[in-house]
């Protein structure tokens, strides 16, 4: 994970935004791993990573604000649902990147490694401190962050950290099937589901009822009749796929 990777990721996500024909985005790694985290060789060599002085707190923060955080914010607000095809290890910031997707489908050989606290002496970042307690609860979030152990794909699924785990040979088929299902859905409904769930942890029950009402005010007139007809006709619904 370096500046260029994050710049390229932001550019790829912008292509998704600009191309209205895209209905779902799949994020995966090339090769054996999903993402090995920060470029530790560069950091250890001379204390710099792509020209950012890691000894300077302000410079580090500036690099995060301008290079590393924009694609994560874009991923969280993408106008289509997102799938992480977790094909291998997701270490350090790679964990935050994977968990930034709506749905994570992992190969059984994949694993998460939280290297931040015990090995690097830093706080988990790239959204990890948000996703961990929301997905697995505070006790497990603290254990993952403070102890830094390896979490297998099976364990991640058992804990609710990810959606599902499949045998390595079945990963492509499982991702393709899920992507096809999401692509057939109403993209506006998928994005509104993401938005509604995002604030549910901190909202009161009454506030969340209002959130649901406000989304249904838009979606029911737009989609409900077609969904009901499709159900009665025993067919797949054909929603208006205009994106937000």
What share of residues is helical?
55-70%
- Morphology: globular
Poorly predicted segments: none
The strand line-up of the biggest sheet is: 1-4-6-9
H and E string? HEHEEHEEHEEHHHEHEHHH
Number of DSSP strand runs = 9
Residue share in β-strands: 5-15%
Radius of gyration (CA) equals 19 Å
**Separate helix tally:** 11
Average of per-residue pLDDT values? 92
Distance between the termini: 31 Å
| SSE class | alpha/beta
Q: What's the story with the biggest beta sheet?
A: 4 strands, parallel
Notes on the structure:
The chain contains eleven helices and nine strands. The chain has helices at 3-18, 40-46, 57-76, 93-99, 116-120, 128-136, 138-147, 153-159, 171-184, 187-198, 205-233, and strands at 25-28, 48-49, 52-53, 82-86, 90-91, 103-107, 111-113, 150-152, 164-166. The strands form three sheets. It has a four-stranded parallel β-sheet, with helices on both faces. A hairpin with a 2-residue loop joins strand 2 (48-49) and strand 3. 31% of the residues are buried. The mean pLDDT is 92.
């Amino acid at each position: 994970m370096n500046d260029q990777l994050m710049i390229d990721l932001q550019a790829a996500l912008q292509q998704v935004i600009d191309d209205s024909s895209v209905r779902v985005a799949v994020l995966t790694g090339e090769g054996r791993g999903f993402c090995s985290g920060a470029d530790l060789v560069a950091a250890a060599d001379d204390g710099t990573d792509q020209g950012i002085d890691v000894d300077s707190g302000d410079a580090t923060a500036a690099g995060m604000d301008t290079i590393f955080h924009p694609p994560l914010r874009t991923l969280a607000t993408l106008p289509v649902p997102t799938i992480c095809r977790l094909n291998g290890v997701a270490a350090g910031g790679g964990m935050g990147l994977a968990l930034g997707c709506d749905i994570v489908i992992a190969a059984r050989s994949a694993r998460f490694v939280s290297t931040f606290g015990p090995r690097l002496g830093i706080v988990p970042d790239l959204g990890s401190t948000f996703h961990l307690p929301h997905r697995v609860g505070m006790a497990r979030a603290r254990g993952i962050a403070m102890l830094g152990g390896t979490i297998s794909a099976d364990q991640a699924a058992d804990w609710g950290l990810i959606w599902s785990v499949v045998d390595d040979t079945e990963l492509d088929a499982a991702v393709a099937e899920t992507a096809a299902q999401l692509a057939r859905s109403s993209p506006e409904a998928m994005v509104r589901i993401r938005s509604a769930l995002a604030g549910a942890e901190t909202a009161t029950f009454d506030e969340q009822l209002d959130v649901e009402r406000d989304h249904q005010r838009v979606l029911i007139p737009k989609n409900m009749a077609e969904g009901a007809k499709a159900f009665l006709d025993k067919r797949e619904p054909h929603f208006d796929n205009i994106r937000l």
